[in-house]
Amino acid sequence: MTDAKKQPVRNAAARRRYAERTAKRICTHCGKAPSFGASRCQACARRAYERSEHVRGLPVYGSEFTVVHAATAETLAVFEQWEDVVLCLSFAGLSFDEVEVLQEHAPMRAVLTGFS
Ligand SMILES: [Zn+2]
Questions:
Q1: How far is the CA of 23 from the centre of ligand 1 (A)?
Q2: Kind and range of the H or E element at 68?
Q3: Average pLDDT rounded to a whole number, residues 35-43
Q4: pTM: predicted TM-score of the whole model, two decimal places
Q5: How far is the CA of 40 from the centre of ligand 1 (A)?
Q6: For residue 102, how far is the Cα from the chain centroid?
Q7: How far is the CA of 34 from the centre of ligand 1 (A)?
């Protein structure tokens, strides 16, 4: 838990430490390695870059199945698992000839799963 009254003091201390480290030309993050004029050393900069969303990318969402009744064009249900589609049809007493199953992939899915 952080004390709200102490926060400005902490921020001031952090700014002073940042200024000290910048003046000494050492990394403002770890305070050890030389930064060669940048704010962070090479190792800290790379770590921060690798943790960023730019590198980690979007989360991979699964696909989605929409069951549409072929005769009435009515959307019966939407499922995330193919097994649920099969269960739905057996409970409703429908066959695959009577419905249309639309499969939708999340955007970027093919691109992202290609890397893993
Ligand atoms: Zn560093």
A1: 15
A2: strand 64-69
A3: 92
A4: 0.43
A5: 5
A6: 26
A7: 8
